[in-house]
């Protein structure tokens, strides 16, 4: 028993290292997709978010609505971490801007559009108050992020040269960071408010 108690801290430490490594890899790994060793775009299979088929009455359950909206928000936050790493690599000259374009086009834009569509479905169904409040909050947080992600791949990063004007990039990054913080705030509030669901 004494040996077991002595070993427990090391077991917990090992588990924490494994979890931290998995989380880091989940953020960094997407930045490598679509880039070959020379930093150029490689042929990849599209990683667009799969279309989820939900029952027609899914909006009638506050718990399902909140879980759906929060899942979408967390997925966007995770991909935003990948975008941050890809842009940092591009600015450092480690890779080209193709990595950022791939993440924005193949993952962030579909996820943002999906979250907005889900929120609009909830609002159109006019369910209970908690669902309506958070559907509007998630939609309002995701809408500017969607426009900014689209701007990134159409104007901030030149679609022909895949180069970036530094002043345009600085302005874009400030706007993106502010909008991402709004989504983070909504996610933080929704964790507690989900407990107020009547069902």
Write up this protein.
The N and C termini lie far apart (45 Å). It contains 5 helices and no strands. It has one domain: Up-down Bundle (A middle domain of Talin 1), CATH 1.20.1420. It is mainly alpha-helical. The protein is elongated. Helix 2 packs antiparallel against helix 3, helix 2 (62-92) packs antiparallel against helix 5 (166-193) and helix 3 (98-125) packs antiparallel against helix 4 (129-156).
What is this structure, in a nutshell?
The protein is mainly α and 199 residues long. The protein has helices spanning 2-28, 62-92, 98-125, 129-156, 166-193.
CATH class: Mainly Alpha
Overall body shape: elongated
Question: Hey, roughly how much beta strand do the residues contain?
Answer: under 5%
Number of helices: 5
Radius of gyration: 20 Å
Number of domains: 1
* CATH architecture assignment name: Up-down Bundle
**Structural class computed from helices and strand pairing:** mainly alpha
List the helices and strands and how they pair.
Elements: H1 2-28, H2 62-92, H3 98-125, H4 129-156, H5 166-193
Helix pairs in contact: 2-3, 2-4, 2-5, 3-4, 4-5
């Amino acid at each position: 028993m004494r040996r077991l108690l002595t070993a427990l801290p090391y077991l917990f430490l090992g588990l924490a290292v494994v979890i931290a490594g998995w989380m880091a890899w989940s953020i960094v790994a997407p930045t490598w997709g679509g880039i070959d060793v020379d930093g150029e775009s490689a042929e990849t299979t599209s990683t667009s978010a799969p279309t989820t088929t939900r029952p027609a009455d899914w909006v009638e359950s506050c718990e399902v609505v909140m879980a759906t909206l929060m899942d979408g928000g967390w997925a966007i936050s995770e991909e935003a971490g990948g975008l941050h790493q890809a842009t940092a690599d591009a600015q450092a000259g480690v890779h080209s801007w193709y990595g950022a374009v791939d993440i924005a086009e193949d993952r962030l834009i579909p996820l943002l559009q999906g979250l907005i569509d889900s929120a609009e479905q909830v609002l159109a169904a006019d369910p209970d108050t908690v669902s309506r409040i958070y559907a509007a909050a998630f939609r309002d947080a995701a809408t500017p992020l969607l426009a900014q992600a689209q701007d990134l791949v159409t104007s901030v990063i030149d679609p022909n040269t895949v180069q970036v004007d530094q002043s345009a990039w600085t302005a874009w990054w400030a706007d993106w960071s502010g909008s991402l913080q709004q989504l983070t705030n909504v996610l933080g509030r929704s964790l507690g408010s989900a407990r107020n669901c009547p069902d």
